[in-house]
Amino acid sequence: xxxxxxxxxxxxxxxxxxxxxxxxxxxxxxxxxxxxxxxxxxxxxxxxxxxxxxxxxxxxxxxxxxxxxxxxxxxxxxxxxxxxxxxxxxxxxxxxxxxxxxxxxxxxxxxxxxxxxxxxxxxxxxxxxxxxxxxxxxxxxxxxxxxxxxxxxxxxxxxxxxxxxxxxxxxxxxxxxxxxxxxxxxxxxxxxxxxxxxxxxxxxxxxxxxxxxxxxxxxxxxxxxxxxxxxxxxxxxxxxxxxxxxxxxxxxxxxxxxxxxxxxxxxxxxxxxxxxxxxxxxxxxxxxxxxxxxxxxxxxxxxxxxxxxxxxxxxxxxxxxxxxxxxxxxxxxxxxxxxxx
Length: 341
Known about the structure:
Blueprint: E1 2-10, E2 13-20, E3 28-36, H1 39-45, H2 51-57, E4 60-61, E5 65-73, E6 83-86, E7 89-90, E8 107-108, E9 121-123, E10 128-130, H3 143-159, E11 166-170, H4 174-186, E12 191-196, H5 199-202, E13 210-213, E14 225-228, H6 235-245, E15 251-254, H7 266-272, E16 275-278, H8 284-296, H9 299-304, E17 308-314, H10 317-328, E18 334-339
Parallel strand pairs: 11-12, 11-14, 12-13, 14-15, 15-16, 17-18
Antiparallel strand pairs: 1-2, 1-4, 3-5, 3-9, 3-18, 5-6, 6-10, 7-8
Helix pairs in contact: 3-4
């Protein structure tokens, strides 16, 4: 069959590429239904990455957050019409020690490997995770971001000390919201503080114990562990502020991505015996666990609905561009594309 792939060929410029694929093979053929725009997609779209990176990775189909429905599975493992999560991480080798999302050989969709902006996506069977039939697909379209936070919390659980009475989350955006929500789910009796700089964003965190503006934190406040969900230029200030307030031997989960080198107060890291835990992306297992969480605790999906921003029905390339442009001015939530192209 001839599959249409919508590729970014230059900043703010998409073109259709036609690729021949065999229907019969070791793949599940999935039709994307809803896609969500990520900050990483925007860095490619706007040309914010270096010229060397853009030259190396373009042309490329964007989007690594998506859900769809099965169109055909020659092996018969998935029925036609099954609603599924799409796992963007694609390992090409196995390792008993290193996770699939940390293997340097793994491919990741929309990062040097075509993403989900296609008529049909050919997925390996272990990269497809079924969903409940009655779930709101538009809301769970950004499950990849949820899986990133979930993965970081699993790493924290394995690597940190046993004190789990109080947590701090730095960042009042999408990732901070998801991380705080999952913390509340996993540690329902713990005290959770969220730290940010935008009052109207902090108002969304109704399920935590208290929110603080980063310029008005009580000097006596402390917590056992913290998660940095700021990223960008703000990472440095956030990490150093966490170091100031965190209790000795606490762990700091680093989730925010920065294009810049970050200077941190290593003297206090040493004095307090802190552990810094880096996390990146997620694995198929994380997606499977999130799908089970959606099934067991449907209220999670309801809470995530607060993160859904504008939804755009996409029928042509001009509407793709419109969605990306308007997403740039969005101050809260995830932009969702209803993929009817």
